[in-house]
Amino acid sequence: MLGVTISRKFSVSQHVDHLLAVCSQSLFALRTLQQHGLPNDALHQVFQAIVINRLSYASPAWWGFTSADDRNRLEAFVRRLVKLGYRANISVTFASICDDADNKLFSQITRNSQHLLHPLLPPEREQHYSLRDRSHNFQLPDHTSVTNDKNFIIRMLYNDNLY
C-alpha cells in the first residue's frame, strides 16, 4: 500500500534494490544539472529533494526489516554521492536519517491521541515510585519473536534514544 515491497520472509532486499535502481537513474539528472553550472547549494537541495527523500520514504515501515547487507548498501550509496559532491553534510548517515524519521513519527503518535496509529500503543503503566524519566510511559510488551521485534511500535518502545 505504501509502495514498500516486503517478501514472505519479511525481507526488504527487493525494496532496497528497487530504491537504489531508481535513485541511480536520478544521478543522470543531477550530473546534468551539475555540468550546466547549477550552484552547489542548489544541487544539494535537489539531491535532498529527489534522492534522500525517495530513499527515506516510509522508512519507519521498512527500516527495521533491513538486513546488515541492505543497510551497508544504502550507506555506501549515500557515501558515494557525498564523494561526487551532491551532499554537503558528510557526517549525517542514512541510518541517522531513518532514526530521526522514526523518532519524529513515534513522537507524533504518542502526543496525539487522535493519530491513526495511537491505538496500537500498549496501555500506559502506573508509576508508584520516582525513578529517572523515561522517553515514554507505556508498558513494555514481552519479546515474542525476532520478527515482531522489528515492528515499528515495538522497536520504538524499546528504543532508548527517543526525543
Write a short abstract of this structure.
By secondary structure, the protein is an all-alpha fold. It is 54% helix and 0% strand. The chain starts with 12 loop residues before the first helix and ends in a 6-residue tail after the last helix.
Q: How many strands, what sense, and barrel or not for the largest sheet?
A: none
Q: Write the H/E string, N to C.
A: HHHHHHH
SS summary, helix count? 7
Please state the average pLDDT score: 84
Detail the poorly predicted runs.
none
Rg, rounded, reads: 19 Å
Question: Percent range for helical residues?
Answer: 40-55%
Strand content: under 5%
- Total beta-strand segments: 0
Q: In one word, what is the shape? A: elongated
- Ends distance: 28 Å
Assembly classification: single chain
Structure classification: mainly alpha
Could you please describe the fold and organization of this structure?
This protein is mainly α and 163 residues long. It has a domain at 13-92. Helices cover 54% and strands 0% of the residues. The chain has seven helices and no strands. It has helices at residues 13-35, 40-56, 59-62, 68-83, 94-111, 146-149, 152-157.
How is the secondary structure organized here?
Blueprint: H1 13-35, H2 40-56, H3 59-62, H4 68-83, H5 94-111, H6 146-149, H7 152-157
